[in-house]
Amino acid sequence: MSKSDKKLPFSNLNLSQFLNGQNIVFMGLLWSSATVFFFLSYSITPPGQDSPFWYLIGTYIWETVPFIFATWLCYRNWKSPQIASGSDVWLYMGLGLGSYSLANFIFGIWELYFGLDPEISPADLFYLLFTVFITWGMVLAVLPRRLNLEWRQWLIVAGVAFLGIASAIWLTFGAPEEGGVETPPPTPTEQAAPAPDPYADVPGLIEATDKFLRVFARPVNLFYTISDIIFLIIASTLLLAFWGGRFSRSWQMIAAAALAKYIADMWLKYATTLPDQYESGGFLEVFYVFSGVLFAIGAALEYDVSTSRSGRSRRRRGGG
What we know:
- The protein is an all-alpha fold and about 325 residues long.
- It is built from 10 helices and no strands.
- The protein starts with 14 loop residues before the first helix and ends with a helix.
- Residues about 1-15, about 180 and about 310-320 have low confidence and may be disordered.
């Protein structure tokens, strides 16, 4: 055998073949399990102490990597001419997931590098784009299916909508407001400590941007609440519309990803109402990681089913 006939190991390995649905499900399970272990091991800190900086960096990495990977898988679906649900669906899904990845990066800089309150930041622009793009992508996936749901299924959608609205109302009006625990006034002999300046080590432009954005904190949070309810309703409708059939598993994963994102958002909204100042890294934020993993699995399963269907139809036309 000549040198030219020799082939390097994995020279015939196609990346798309390696990143099939089965392998991505396996990688997603490993990533989710490792994330749960990481959060369980380090998310609980002694009273009065903040989480270590390396832990906070780790939470951003565990969360953002699945969304970046899911963005690439959506791009692969968008470029594939065989994709069954339509390229526009995956274009908007990919734009949404890419926006979320970028938002996480900006959010981390705002919170960890500048040390500012993450209630609102420039990252919210891209979080809003994520919601808009993902919602529209799911709508495009549902529209061609002519929602012929049974009355029982419509009752399920109505029940999900009721629970979503009820939980949002409770978190908005019923949960304890931030700072609701009053501290007793200092006695005359006590010397009140001056409040630390949050902008002491922050550039002037960043300080001006933060003060400007705080004006929009309430309407932006209200938009998040409303969009989360819409997100939940569309996800449940998507789950019922794709119940059964060849493409059901991929869209069940997408719906589960939306549900995981909703749970994490509701926890985040509740955490910001507590008396203590909110800090990223709470255990239930692991649902953000689950959401990214499920989006990636859904995109991979859709690609597998679409390309395998195309291969079978070509063999039938060829007389195989």
